[in-house]
Amino acid sequence: METIFEKAIDLKHNNFLTVESKVPQIESEIDYNENELSRSIEQYKNKDLITFKKTRYESYKQWGFPKWKRTKLNGYDPLKYIEKINPKISGNPLSIDNIDEEGLKILAKYDMEGANRKFFLMSDTFFNTGFYIKTKKNEEKKPIILEYNLDNPIYENTIFNIKENSKVTVVRILNGSNEDGFRTTSLRGFLGKNAELTIINVAHLGDKDINIDNALFEVGENATVNVYDLHISGRISSPHYIFRLSGENSNAFMKPYFLGYNDNIIDMFYLIRFYGKNTTGDITGKGVLKDLSKAVFRGTLDIKKNAKEANASESEHTLLLSEKSRAEAIPSLLVDENEVNASHAASVGTLNEDTLYYLMTRGFSKVEAKRLLSLAIFESFIDEVEKYHKETSEVIRNVIESKI
Fold first, then answer.
1. What GO biological process, any one, is recorded here (predicted)?
2. How far apart are alpha carbons 381 and 231 in whole angstroms?
């Protein structure tokens, strides 16, 4: 089977040659080894999954942990390994241990660097949780809700197999820790003809937590994937999502939201690659930063040759509530086809003084007016969460109101 390996930068784009920078690697003296691998394997019965773990371990041990200048991460020492994590679950998804032949093909076919290759291979090798989310043809599956607490390190490996004319929504909630919590993931998925997948991510971290969320989806003919992605706080939050629009009339809609305070760092990467005709991809990001927090927003729209009549758009806005908070927006548009519609924009700004004044004339204090305008940025996301998990939507609202 041909493996599809998606990188953040496609070095084969047209006739251009791209020079790829190398991330420095640092070996950890307490890195996981055969001991943790054996303990991980003992949790699973599926022989193909066990073989997969062993194969990925051979790659894993070849890599060191990254020295990420942008996130101030100088290598990493893994936390004490926990063999199994049990989230709160509703919707009856299958454990990844029940993956079938179709799921195994998805697992084998799709690969990528992720936010960092070492962390991506870490979740592939040592996953201590994960699901096989599969629909039947013409099925509208009940929403699936997965709620994790970051009390122990989480390594998630989840496969999505969304069949023709089917539909499912998955809500992934991550509650942060009071210590040095850590999560890294590998998500892979394929959407068949006319299928629809919606993923709602809620990551509310502690100030010392690290969360790395890697995902790669291939979208078939007339299929649609929607991702709502909220990141609040965290020492490092690093979502890395890639969509392949391979089917004619396929669609991907990515909606990131973020709130940083204290010295949080939120380092986001979202990529939509257009291969099929009449495809539509949109990235719309919004966020608020205060104190010494920092956000890097990298959104890339990559339109390949023969992706005629593709519609590609991207916008991102960051609201700064502190002179010392920092935002970097890096929108990229790569076009290798003439017959397309494409646009991108990014902005960083402060609250509009005229709007503030207007609200104050209506009886709001300046603090209340600031809070109201900032909260409005997240309202559409909160409304989306409320459809499936009201308790979490209220938590998000209270956190945002208390931190702004």
1. iron-sulfur cluster assembly
2. 11
Separation CA 216–CA 60 (nearest Å): 19
Q: What is the mean pLDDT of residues 309-331?
A: 94
Q: What is the 3-state secondary structure (H, E, C) of 118-178?
A: HHHHHHHHHCCECEEEECCCCCECCCEEEEEECCCCEEEEEEEEECCCCEEEEEEEEECCC
Residue 335 CA, chain-centre distance (Å), reads 24
| 167, 123, 56, 112 alpha-carbon torsion, rounded to 10° | 60
pLDDT in tens, 157-191: 999 999 999 999 999 999 999 889 999 999 999 99
* Global pTM exceeds 0.90: yes
- 17: pLDDT strictly greater than 80: no
Backbone φ and ψ of 360, nearest 5°: -65, -30
Asked whether 123 and 150 are in contact (CB, 8 A), the reply is: no
Q: In this structure, which amino acid lies at residue 364?
A: F
Other beta carbons within 10 angstroms of residue 345's beta carbon come to 11
With the CA atoms of 335, 336, 340 and 342 taken in that order, what torsion angle do they form, in degrees rounded to the nearest 10?
A: 0
Q: Would you call 205 helix, strand, or coil by DSSP?
A: coil
First vs last C-alpha separation in the chain: 50
3-state SS, residue 22: coil
Q: What's the rounded Cα separation, in Å, for the pair 368 and 365?
A: 5
When pLDDT is averaged across residues 86-109 and rounded to a whole number, the result is: 96
The pLDDT > 90 percentage for the chain reads 84
